[in-house]
Amino acid sequence: MVKMMSEVTRAGSVNLRLLRGGIAGVVAIALNSIALKAADWVPLSTAHGGLLRLLVQLGGIPIALAGVADTWRRLGLPAPDTQLFQWSFHAVIGMAMAQLYVLGVKARLPGPATAKGAIYAITVWLINAVIVLPLVGEGFAGSRDLSCFGIAWFGAAHTLFFLSLAWVDEVLCVALRFE
């Protein structure tokens, strides 16, 4: 009986974390998207779609062989090179990052919400700058095509995502008396 109660409590805890991650993720994605769109209005080129390009490069053939690409086209869904697909991918990846944060990353990072958000931001930025963008031919942090200001703007928009994610999650934890 005690074990069953513990499992119910744990499931409730996970559901509450997923809810917090969803709310914090929506806020963080919205702020990040506004910051990236603002760069387009300047106009200033920032790192857009590096992960999507890498996944297409790495997974294009297996996806085609599995019939996913054909099914996708038959259903009339947007192609990967369309803005709708790219922004949708951006939102899905942002939500995945938010859920990873609330489900496990947060508990493993030291300090208050600001420190946790900053550490998460730096870690993901380094993965993007050192691995993803060089693999798609953009060089370190996109330096092949981006100006220093473009790299800085992208870094700031990226950091805004992770800090706002951590801050909103912290506000929700306090409001819900959780953790």
From TrEMBL:
Record-annotated membrane-spanning stretches: 21-39, 51-72, 84-105, 117-136, 148-168
Full protein name: DUF1440 domain-containing protein
Swiss-Prot/TrEMBL keywords: Membrane, Transmembrane, Transmembrane helix
Organism name: Paraburkholderia madseniana
Domain of life of the native organism: Bacteria
Lineage of source species: Bacteria, Pseudomonadati, Pseudomonadota, Betaproteobacteria, Burkholderiales
